[in-house]
Amino acid sequence: MNTHQTHIETLALLARTLGNAHRLALLEHIAQGERSVERLAELTDLSLANASQHLQHLKRAGFVQTRREGKNVLYRLGTGPIAPLLVALRDYADHQQARIHDLVADSRSHPARLEPISREELLRRMSEESVTLLDVRSEDEFALGHLPGAINIPVEELERRLAELPAKQNIVAYCRSPYCVLSVDAVAALRAHGLAAQRLANGFVDWKAAGLDVETATRVYDPGP
Amino acid sequence: MNTHQTHIETLALLARTLGNAHRLALLEHIAQGERSVERLAELTDLSLANASQHLQHLKRAGFVQTRREGKNVLYRLGTGPIAPLLVALRDYADHQQARIHDLVADSRSHPARLEPISREELLRRMSEESVTLLDVRSEDEFALGHLPGAINIPVEELERRLAELPAKQNIVAYCRSPYCVLSVDAVAALRAHGLAAQRLANGFVDWKAAGLDVETATRVYDPGP
DNA sequence: CCACCATTCAATCAATGTGTTGAGCATTGC
DNA sequence: GCAATGCTCAACACATTGATTGAATGGTGG
C-alpha cells in the first residue's frame, strides 16, 4: 500500500504544481519559446525572486527545463505529454463554464445551441463564399494560434466593437472547444444587432486536431537582446 | 464581491482541487460507482467530516455530483471530460517516472527497453499460441479495467508471487501507458528468474483506445434514473 | 582572477489549506 | 413525536504555501 500512496501522492503533487495561476501563466509564456527569468518575471508581473521560485517549482515537476546562455538562464518547456494535460484541463474548464451557462439559459427558457455548423460545413462555405471568421477568445489565446484570417474580438468587447465586422458577410464565431460557450453568447449578440452569424461546433481545438492551417500572431518568439 | 476570476485562475482552481491525494483517492473510488459518504470515508481512511469536506470541494469543481437515497447521500462522477483529464495527468506522471528511470538505467549502462512488442504483435500471438498476460499495475487500477484474461501482480509484489505464473508459457507484461516503466522492471525480474517475458509497448491506455476488449473486476458505474 | 549581474537561496510573515471536534439538520424507523 | 442515523457546518489548531526582502552564488566577460 505504501507504493500506491506514493503514486497518488505524485499525481497530487503534479496537479498542485499546476494549481497556481502564476505558474500557469509562466508555463504559457514558456510554451511560446525559451525565455529568461527576467523576461518571464516581466511578462507575468512578478518579482524576480518570486518568478524564480515558481519556475523552480515547475522545474521540479518536470514541466520546464533550463539551460544557460551567457549570463541568462533560459527556461523552456519540458519533455513529455504536457500539452495534452493542459488541453484536458482547459477542456474540462470549458465544460464547467458551459454547464453553468446552460443552467442560466434553461432558467430563461433559451432555445438550444443556435444550430452550430461543423468544421466540414465551414470549410465548404469558405471555399464557396466569403465568410468572416470571428475568434471570441482572449487575446493571448488568439496569439497562440487561430483559424486563418480570423478576427479576434474577445466576447466581452464584442458589443462595442461591432463596427470592426463587415456588415454584409456571414459571420462564423468560435472559441476553444466544443464545451466553450462564449461563441453562443457572441452569436446571440450578433444576431441581436441584425448580423448573420453562426457558431462553429467544435471550436479551435478540433480545427487544430484535424491538422488544418493555424495562424499564429506575428511575434512568436522574441528572445530579446 | 470579487467573483471575477480570470480564465487562468479558474484553471488553477481546478488543478488545485486535484492537487490533494485524498481528493484524488476519493475521485477514483467514485469513478468506480456511486458511493455514500460513509463508505468513501472508510475506503480512503478519512474521518467522516473530513471526507465530507473534500467531497464538497470536488463537488464545487464539478468533479462529482450528489443525490440523496434514503438516509445516504450518494456521490457519483460529474459530467464532462473528467476521465481525459485524469488520464492526461497519469500519462504525464508516467512519463516523469520513465524519465527518472532512464537516468538510473543510463548510469548503470543498461541495455535499451527490452524490445517491447506492439499491440498487433500481441494480438497475433494470442491467436496463435497461449500467452500469459501480466498486469503489473496496482490492484485498484487493475479493477478499473484490464486486458482480457490478464493476471494482476503489482510490480513490487512480483518477486514473491512468481509461483502464480505458469512457467511454461510466454509472459507479456504491461502497465498503463507508453511512458509507464513498471513493465520494464517486471520483464527484467522475470527474465532474471528464467522466465520468457516481454513487455507490451504502449500499455493499457493504448489497448483501450484501440477499442479492444476490456475486462473490469467490479461493477461499472450505473447512472440510474 | 576580478567585478559584475542574473539568478537562486534563506528568512520571514501573511494567506490558505487541512484535519479535528462537537454542534446542527435532515430523513428514516419506531 | 422521538431517537437513531448519516451527513454537513462552524470553529479552532496546525501545516503548507506564497510573497517580500536582502544576502549569497556562480558563471561571464573583461
UniProtKB/TrEMBL annotation, chains A, B:
<dbReference type="InterPro" id="IPR050229">
    <property type="entry name" value="GlpE_sulfurtransferase"/>
</dbReference>
<dbReference type="Pfam" id="PF00581">
    <property type="entry name" value="Rhodanese"/>
</dbReference>
<dbReference type="GO" id="GO:0004792">
    <property type="term" value="F:thiosulfate-cyanide sulfurtransferase activity"/>
</dbReference>
<dbReference type="Pfam" id="PF12840">
    <property type="entry name" value="HTH_20"/>
</dbReference>
<dbReference type="InterPro" id="IPR001763">
    <property type="entry name" value="Rhodanese-like_dom"/>
</dbReference>
<dbReference type="InterPro" id="IPR001845">
    <property type="entry name" value="HTH_ArsR_DNA-bd_dom"/>
</dbReference>
<dbReference type="InterPro" id="IPR011991">
    <property type="entry name" value="ArsR-like_HTH"/>
</dbReference>
<dbReference type="InterPro" id="IPR001307">
    <property type="entry name" value="Thiosulphate_STrfase_CS"/>
</dbReference>
<dbReference type="InterPro" id="IPR036873">
    <property type="entry name" value="Rhodanese-like_dom_sf"/>
</dbReference>
<dbReference type="GO" id="GO:0003700">
    <property type="term" value="F:DNA-binding transcription factor activity"/>
</dbReference>
<feature type="domain" description="Rhodanese">
    <location>
        <begin position="127"/>
        <end position="216"/>
    </location>
</feature>
<dbReference type="InterPro" id="IPR036388">
    <property type="entry name" value="WH-like_DNA-bd_sf"/>
</dbReference>
<protein>
    <submittedName>
        <fullName>Metalloregulator ArsR/SmtB family transcription factor</fullName>
    </submittedName>
</protein>
<feature type="domain" description="HTH arsR-type">
    <location>
        <begin position="3"/>
        <end position="97"/>
    </location>
</feature>
<dbReference type="InterPro" id="IPR036390">
    <property type="entry name" value="WH_DNA-bd_sf"/>
</dbReference>
